Amino acid sequence: MTDATKLKALENVHRFFQDGGFADALAKRVAYRSMSGPDAKDDDLLPYYHEILEPDLTAMGFRCSYLQNPVAGASPFLLAERIESPDFLTVLTYGHGDVVPGYDDQWEEGLSPWSLTLRDDAWYGRGVADNKGQHLINLTALREVIAARDGRLGFNLKALFELGEERSSPGLRQVCKERAQALAADLFIASDGPRVSKDQPTLFLGSRGSAVFELSCTPRAGGLHSGNWGGIMKNPGVVLASAIASMVDGKGRILVQDLLPPPIPTPVRDALARLKVDSESLGRKIDEDWGEPGFTAAERLLGWNSLEVLTLHAGNYAKPVNAIPPAAYAHLQLRFVVGTNWTAIEDIVRTHLDQAGFTDVQVKLIRGSPATRLDPASSWVSWAKAAVKDVMGTEPAVVPNLGGTVPNDVFSDILGLPTVWIPHSYPGCKQHAANEHLPLSIVEQGLAMMVSVFWELGEAAALDACNRHRATPVA
Ligand SMILES: [Zn+2]
């Protein structure tokens, strides 16, 4: 790295961090109680747009507009556009200003969800990791690149924000379909979710999908005395447990072939082989004998599907009585990777249950969202790796997809974009719980990485990566 402009932007962003500018900006954002949940109110949410994001983005030369949410009662989307030339690359980024509830009384002594506190080299407060701190890092880096380049970027940038991510992004899918033209771009880059570990800069390229379905066995309306009827009347608890056991064994191995993905593609397998995914990196002893036999932990967690029992219910657990319960229910969840035929999950499970003799077990899909994964062999991935390595000295970890689920299909499938996520958080950040925090080291590295990424997007190599990506047939 020799470019003086890039060095200047890196120096300035470092100074902003050192001088407390970043902490002040983060504290201001954390103080907004922009909670989204079943009873979210626009009065709590919209000020984050009007008082924080819109002034910030406008000062950086963005033109801001609001896209009405097609879902009644859900907050609008903020679209900020900064178009320098129709000939330039266009990048779409994304963030969310809503947070989960504070759970104020559960925080450690001296900490509060709504005021930023520095403790043990980390900032504590609701939203520091999810997602206020993450998009603040990106916007701060962007501002320094614009300043260092005398008011220009060398690429076009569109930024989409929402206030409903924590309640499953109502309307996001629909608005991206309806406004595909306004959101059109060449590349998607955003920050959310965790790194693979605290000290390892990370790119992730998609996420596993999730399908939650209910299994039920409801042979009769009331319970039956187990002494008078046991042995001649079927027990729905036994039937349901057996049905589940026919789908996933006692070691977590999925037994229904059609609930599995195709073999792991070579570029994905290679990327997974370079990741450190073990008890040490995850901070918790993992079960070596759980999941698909013969697979590494990285392959089991990120390259394969898992079938979980989320709930399991029959009878009255608190008060067992001598009765055959009238019904049994369970919620199961399939976490799946790209290539899984998840939209047919009801039919797949139905066929399996019928063949296995469980015709009296009903299946119903409750909710689902697709899996996504940019090919790790894409030229955009090597481009992003180089941009990170330029300031970090080493290449980032490349996670083909997160184990969890983010609404990445909106960007990858609906808008058709190559998606590169650069997370500024880590697995221990307590996101969604009390004591949410963001280590200073991650902020400092994140700022430098994003300066590099935004700076490099204005260079010829980015255009080249874009052209090579387009020339590669989609696998
Ligand atoms: Zn969240």
Automatic annotation (TrEMBL):
- What name goes with this protein? Peptidase M20 dimerisation domain-containing protein
Organism, scientific name? Cupriavidus taiwanensis
* InterPro entries xref list: Cyt/Met_Dipeptidase (IPR051458), Peptidase_M20 (IPR002933), Peptidase_M20_dimer (IPR011650)
Entry keyword set? Hydrolase, Metal-binding, Plasmid, Protease
Domain Peptidase M20 dimerisation, which positions? Answer: 206-356
Can you tell which superkingdom this protein's organism belongs to? Bacteria
Name the Gene Ontology molecular function terms of this record: metal ion binding; peptidase activity
GO biological process: any one? proteolysis
